Amino acid sequence: MKEVAYRAGVSTATVSRVINQNGYVAPALQEKVRRTMEMLNYQPSALARGLRRQETRCVGVLVPQISQPFFSQLGYAIEQALFNQRYRTFLCSAEEDSDKEAAYIEMLLRQRVDGVILVPTGRSLANVERLLRSNVAVVLVDRDLPDLQIDRVLSDNVQGAYQVAHYLLGLGHQRIAIVGAEPHSESVARRLSGVRQALSEAGIRPTSEHLATGTGQQFKLGLVTVQRLMRLRNPPTALIALTDMLAVGAIHGAWKAGLRLPADLSVTGFDDIPLASYVLPELTTIAQPITKMGERTVHRLLQLIAERQVQLVETVELKPECVLLPTRLIVRRSTAPPRTSQP
Q1: Nearest-angstrom CA–CA distance, 150 and 323
Q2: DSSP E strands, the chain
Q3: 69-99 per-position pLDDT tens digit
Q4: Residue 15's pLDDT band (boundaries 50, 70, 90)?
Q5: From CA 304, how far away is CA 298, in angstroms rounded?
């Protein structure tokens, strides 16, 4: 900075004001300082400036699997909302591995991020508690950890799953199978609860052979589940997949098995990822408000960051908030009444 000031013929205070956009500097002088910085290839240290101002204007975003369309959409929505508020993003993918999640959390803390937005891996509290002990602003999104007093932004998984099951029952389906992924996920558990509630009200109790859960590649899990189900003596007439990726795999598996959809099998999903509109037949699903989830999460995180700045000079009691966003049923061509009467 001293070299820039010397070459530009100004004080270091003037250079500092130009860099930090803090205080008045005549436009012509600002341009002269910027040209000098370019000539010297001078890059101000964002971290050093952040430490002086008790902020870095960087936020960590940690998701379980960035390769999953839902999480890539959510990550994009969060990054856009942060960028519009002049924050920069570290986007990390834990790959459903709590050790990798812990490593990324340590990295984000070393980078002195102002806050962290987290879709937690598993149900362990240790990694999130590590963040909370560090006095970093934290908001959970999509997946919950009910035992923690923490801000969270969720969609109503129970309501959405109940709605899609109730819809299939209304079409006349009684033999309804369920396939879910990542059984440790609180979101998937709540979806399963919503489906079971609707079936129970209709006097239906799913058998163990009509329920499949697993980890790993969801397309494949959906595919192999359909192939197994349709070999049963009394195969289901409808399948509720608890994610769209499972549903797309199931549709492909049904096609490979020579089934006609929805005549032989109705299939539903959950999330409404873009692919849901382009598979054949187009997928009936529950739409999560993904963009709104990202925006509300960022809004709450920036509130927490601002409140922590106030805490530097006065005591403020922070009360965690839970935002629960509604989902909605999107009916497309992958569902129809069962072809024959059921016992």
Answers
A1: 11
A2: 58-63, 88-93, 115-118, 137-141, 151-155, 176-181, 211-214, 238-241, 266-268, 285-287, 322-325, 328-330
A3: 999 999 999 999 999 999 999 999 999 999 9
A4: confident
A5: 10
d(CA 198, CA 266): 17
| Dihedral-angle region of residue 95 (phi above 0 means left; psi in -120 to 50 means alpha; beta otherwise) | left
Taken in order of first residue, the domains within the chain and their CATH numbers are 2-44 (1.10.260.40), 55-148+290-324 (3.40.50.2300), 157-288 (3.40.50.2300)
List C-alpha distances in Å: 201 to 157, 194, 207, 242.
18, 11, 16, 20
Residue 181, pLDDT score: 83
pLDDT score for 20 = 66
Distance CA 104, CA 118 (A): 11
**Measured between alpha carbons, how far is 187 from 190 in angstroms, rounded to an integer?**
5
Residues 265 and 239 sit within 8 Å (Cβ to Cβ): yes
| pTM to 2 decimal places | 0.81
The dihedral formed by the CA atoms of 159, 218, 253 and 334, expressed in degrees to the nearest 10: 30
Q: Is 92 helix (H, G, I), strand (E, B) or coil?
A: strand
Report which residue type is found at 136.
Answer: V
For residue 31, give the 3-state DSSP assignment.
helix
Q: What band does 124 get if pLDDT is binned at 50, 70 and 90?
A: confident
The rounded distance, in Å, linking the Cα atoms of 186 and 189 is 5
